[in-house]
């Protein structure tokens, strides 16, 4: 479904990612974990077209989105990548705080705005998925709790029926009740056939709900494997993530 090949991304002269390769197969949850500053958010931004790629490539299905492959350069802008099936829920949620919940969902469906019936159906689906958003639909997004904003950010990305959903630290700053709700929602999305690349600060939680995982350290993949095996290796968790 999603393939990242030999990806290098730089800030100035410094490489934030160095020849990183990973894949997310159809219907999987794949976790990308590592300490702060390892390059996890950079990788998601590169996949969704928000950062330029120095070398390597990003591919969804049989289509190269960005980078270079077989001597051909590809440069797909972010808004077209959304239309090609990549949804991105950014770190910190980044809702449009001065717009209502409903307006945030409409903005998420900008590319299908001319099909009002489809847009309405998708919005109703997300209200069913997140009933709290229905209750708050006329409320300014900036006045929502952190957990409610996270629901809104996820619903906004799901409006476009992405083939692959990129989730960047969805539990960050949330109360335990909302953390559980977010993790349960991610599992429900998998059951519904959504393919997910998950960046999560709660490494043990990410390993508990994912099928496969990559550990990123200083811009490099240092270990990968089935999540069930990685989470049963306390030495690995302590060495690369600093948690027990």
Automatic annotation (TrEMBL):
Gene3D superfamilies in alphabetical order: P-loop containing nucleotide triphosphate hydrolases
PROSITE patterns per UniProt: ABC_TRANSPORTER_1, ABC_TRANSPORTER_2
One GO MF term: ATP hydrolysis activity
Domain ABC transporter: residue ranges: 2-243
Gene Ontology terms: biological process: L-amino acid transport
Signal peptide range: none
The UniProt record lists the keyword rRNA processing: no
Statement: the UniProt record of this protein carries the keyword Transport: yes
Domain of life (superkingdom): Bacteria
SMART domains registered for this protein in UniProt: AAA
Keywords for the protein's UniProt record, in alphabetical order: Amino-acid transport, ATP-binding, Nucleotide-binding, Transport
InterPro entries reported in the protein's UniProt record: AAA+_ATPase (IPR003593), ABC_transporter-like_ATP-bd (IPR003439), ABC_transporter-like_CS (IPR017871), BCAA_Transport_ATP-bd_LivF (IPR052156), P-loop_NTPase (IPR027417)
Pfam families, per database record: ABC_tran
CDD domains registered for this protein in UniProt: ABC_TM1139_LivF_branched
Family, as annotated: Belongs to the ABC transporter superfamily.
Protein name: ABC transporter ATP-binding protein
Organism field: Effusibacillus lacus
Lineage: Bacteria, Bacillati, Bacillota, Bacilli, Bacillales
